[in-house]
Amino acid sequence: MDVASGTLMRLGDSGQMLADPGQDIRGRKVLDRDRNEIGRIAELLVDAQERQVRLLQVEHGGLFGVGATPLFIPAEAVEEVTETDVSLDRTRVQVADAPAYDPELLDRDEQMARLYGHYGYAPYWAPGFIPPRSGFFR
């Protein structure tokens, strides 16, 4: 287990369910702040210890899901959630320029710190962390 950030696991692999099924946003379109479509939410990465959604795994590109590239976006970037869409507070370019993150690596803390830093957020384990403002993931 990572000391700083805890263990993240895909919600689908965790055996857990969200308390409110309406909060399962997998499959919804992801829109940037200008309402451009970025992709669809493929999975939610959950902090196993805190039982909180920490990252959205968004698939973009490819054809019918084949060859799609995963992007990982901190839950803090979510501005609004509707029945069909998840809107971010960032542009498509900012999302595309985010550093890579690989949830399969054992030591992910440095990667995750860079990812959170790119979006301008303190990592959820660090001093100064502010929970997602959308209230959706609390």
TrEMBL record:
Pfam families: PRC
Residues of the PRC-barrel domain: 23-83
SUPFAM superfamilies per record: PRC-barrel domain
InterPro entries in the record: Bac_photo_RC_H_C, PRC-brl_dom, PRC_barrel-like_sf
PANTHER family: BLR1072 PROTEIN (PTHR36505)
Protein name stated in the entry: PRC-barrel domain-containing protein
Organism: Actinoplanes couchii
